[in-house]
User: Which sequence fits this backbone?
């Protein structure tokens, strides 16, 4: 997927003018958000589980090399094969070699954001191998030739009518010529079209929600069961997963699963939770003859030990974007790469560079809702601020912005000058906007007044009002500290 993160502002402009997108985004506020709240409230130990999930991931990241080796040994002890991919290009090469070795003409895929990250579908198509997305949302956007706009609901930007038109246009070759209007009918038709593709596929490719170091197992979570057919029917099963997906034991995986579904979709558990350990064994009725796990780094190890390490705790539930006012207004495509929303605003600069993705950490109100609902308590606002700092230090932000911050910083360090300037500005702007109560144009604030009016200041500044009402001008603890110092002096005398 070609990154367009550097065109974020243009992408946002297009998103705000897309009526269908705006109608679709309303589903998030009425669906995911209240369901997550209800699911969390119904589990008394939910906050404790979040702490435990955070600690599990922190422990793994602190001993990542050990658990990677342990996982690889466990996979190979059970008949599987582990492949190490340092870059996206390495991962594509390995998967293409495995597919060619199996004489693959078609591969079925379950939903996997990491395959989007390495642009796997494009690579397969260029090699003459047809990739078939089996998750309904991924299947829809594959027909539309679009990237996903959400990490758990990839087609959330599509309306029901748009999907109906897509199916009518593409399913005619399968004898489906009636325009369907009901979601259940569309799901049934997609199932009928995909069923034979499962049976014909030479290779099945999946991601993994978790990798269990103890047993060499992978864990897949879906609501459609498509991953089970993808991994069990073809002769060769290929797993692509980031190195951060590890958990130490099955018990730890259970803890992670208890917060995952509740955070993602508001379910107690997803409909299908599948554990896969190695290839088909003697006596098994089904399963692949070969089991391959491709472990992808692609910049992740470079985040370990840095101020961005906490981002590697992410379990891809999507809660941060479901609760983000920015994502809820502009959607996922505006972010210009694979990972949207607050988690994308932190992860994308780490993977493709802040030079390309510097707009993303600036696309935040810092309301803190993302951190508030994260099941593994990732401090997303703090890390977005860290990216803003790096952008500023490298002079990647506009010169006017850096100049403005420099001027503000000069006054902020000089309280008397700051109060004088703000008092003068408030009085002046108040007079300018007195007649209508707002300012349609404002020097140095054209980005604001181009699309909205600026409320005119009314009355005194906050500091002046605070003083006039008899409030103390010092911090609450200052007077107490001063009294304690005075008392200590008296005792010393």
Assistant:
């Amino acid at each position: 997927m070609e990154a367009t993160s550097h065109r974020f502002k243009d992408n946002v402009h297009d998103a705000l003018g897309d009526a269908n997108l705006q109608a679709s985004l309303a589903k998030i506020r009425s669906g995911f958000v209240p369901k997550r709240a209800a699911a969390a409230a119904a589990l008394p130990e939910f906050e404790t589980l979040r702490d435990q999930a955070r600690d599990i991931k922190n422990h793994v990241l602190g001993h990542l090399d050990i658990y990677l080796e342990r996982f690889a040994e466990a996979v190979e002890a059970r008949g599987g094969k582990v492949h190490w991919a340092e870059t996206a290009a390495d991962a594509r090469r390995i998967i293409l070699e495995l597919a060619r070795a199996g004489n693959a003409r078609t591969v079925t895929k379950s939903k996997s954001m990491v395959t989007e990250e390495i642009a796997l579908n494009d690579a397969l198509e260029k090699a003459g191998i047809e990739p078939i997305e089996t998750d309904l949302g991924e299947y829809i956007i594959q027909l539309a030739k679009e990237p996903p706009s959400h990490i758990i609901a990839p087609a959330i930007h599509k309306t029901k009518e748009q999907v109906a038109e897509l199916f009518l246009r593409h399913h005619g070759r399968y004898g489906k010529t009636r325009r369907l209007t009901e979601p259940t009918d569309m799901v049934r038709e997609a199932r009928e079209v995909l069923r034979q593709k499962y049976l014909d596929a030479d290779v099945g490719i999946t991601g993994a929600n978790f990798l269990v170091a103890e047993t060499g197992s992978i864990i897949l979570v879906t609501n459609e069961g498509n991953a089970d057919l993808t991994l069990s029917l073809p002769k060769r099963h290929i797993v692509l997963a980031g190195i951060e997906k590890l958990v130490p034991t099955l018990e730890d995986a259970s803890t992670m699963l208890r917060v995952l579904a509740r955070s993602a979709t508001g379910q107690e558990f997803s409909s299908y939770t599948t554990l896969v350990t190695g290839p088909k064994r003697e006596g098994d009725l089904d399963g692949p003859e070969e089991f391959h796990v491709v472990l992808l780094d692609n910049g992740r190890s470079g985040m370990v030990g840095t101020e961005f390490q906490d981002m590697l705790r992410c379990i891809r539930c999507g809660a941060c974007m479901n609760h983000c006012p920015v994502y809820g207004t502009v959607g996922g495509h505006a972010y210009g790469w694979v990972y949207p929303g607050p988690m994308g605003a932190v992860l994308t600069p780490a993977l493709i560079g802040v030079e390309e993705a510097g707009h993303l950490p600036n696309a935040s109100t810092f309301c803190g809702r993302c951190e508030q609902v994260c099941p593994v308590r990732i401090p997303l606002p703090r890390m977005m601020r860290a990216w803003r700092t790096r952008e500023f230090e490298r002079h990647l932000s506009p010169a006017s912005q850096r100049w403005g911050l420099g001027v503000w910083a000069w006054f902020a360090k000089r309280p008397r000058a700051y109060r004088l300037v703000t008092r003068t500005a408030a009085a002046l702007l108040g007079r300018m906007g007195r007649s209508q109560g707002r300012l349609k144009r404002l020097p140095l604030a054209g980005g604001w007044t181009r699309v909205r009016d600026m409320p005119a200041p009314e009355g005194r500044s906050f500091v002046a009002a605070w003083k006039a009402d008899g409030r103390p001008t010092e911090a609450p603890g200052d007077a107490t500290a001063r009294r304690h110092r005075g008392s200590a002096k008296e005792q010393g005398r």
Q: What stands out?
A: Confidence is low (pLDDT under 50) at residues 475-493. The first strand starts at residue 81 and ends at 85. Residues 405-492 form one domain. Residues 183-200 form the longest helix (18 residues).
